[in-house]
Amino acid sequence: MTVYNNVTRLELSYITNEAKVNIVNFDCNNISFPNNIMKDSSPWYGTFHNCKNLTTVSNIPNSVTDMRSSFTSCINLVNIPDHFPPNVKDLSYSFEWCYAIRSIPTLPNSVSAVNYAFMQCRNLVNVPTDMPSNITNYAAAFWDCSNLKTAPNINGHLADNFWVLFSGCYNLTTSNIVIGPKAKYIYGMYERCYNLTQVNLTYTDYNNTIYAKDVYNMFYGCNKLSNFPELPPCAENMSGTFYNCQLLTHFNCPNTVTNMYQAFF
């Protein structure tokens, strides 16, 4: 492993399969890479973690498939490439706590994980219209993206985790999600989405043995929500599900529900 401390300028032309770059206290403002910089994508796991002075990433090499934690805590990163590598699969934690990012490009169909990918990107306002249908993990993907107003359309037929997906997106107004038969965790999805007015949830290929039964805090504090979203037909725990949702007037309760503690108030 090669470790660089207090780097102020970085120019890389090629990294071999055996080499890994770990940059500590990275102080450069703008980075760009040739697409043949590496044959092995492993150096991108956490490579620019906590690079607080980084503001612009011009491109990401096409060979990269694993971007986990690659830019976590780059709190001043504003400009990211207008496209991701065509075969990237894992974006989990990739831009977590990148407070300054305003836009993210369309995600390639190869992406299968976005858990925590954009958590607390508080200035994020522009997201893709549609998310790839191959994603299996959405946990906390947009958690506390407080300036996001329009959610991407999500076909979550393969996903098993939607935990706190949009929790804390205070300005979010609408959302459309298809939830498939592998879903296990959907609680807290829209918790504290205070401006949410319309949610369309569709459940496909219902399977009582797999489907999420905990829907607690799912719409907690959504006081502008005007339509009762559908719940999974096997829902059991509704604790806090519609807490303080003052505009809701009717509700179709699944007959499987066993816990309604503070479900509405």
Given helix and strand content, the structural type is: little secondary structure
Largest sheet: 3 strands, parallel
Radius of gyration: 20 Å
How far from one another are the termini?
Answer: 56 Å
| Net shape | globular
Number of strands: 7
The average pLDDT is: 84
Q: Outline the low-pLDDT stretches.
A: 1-25
Order of strands in the sheet with most strands = 5-6-7
Number of helices: 0
**What percentage of residues falls in helices of 4 or more residues?**
under 10%
Range of strand content? 5-15%
Element pattern in H and E = EEEEEEE
Structure described in brief:
The chain has 265 residues and is largely without helices or strands. It is built from no helices and seven strands. The strands form three sheets. It has a three-stranded parallel β-sheet, with no helix packed on it. Strands 1-2 form a two-stranded parallel sheet.
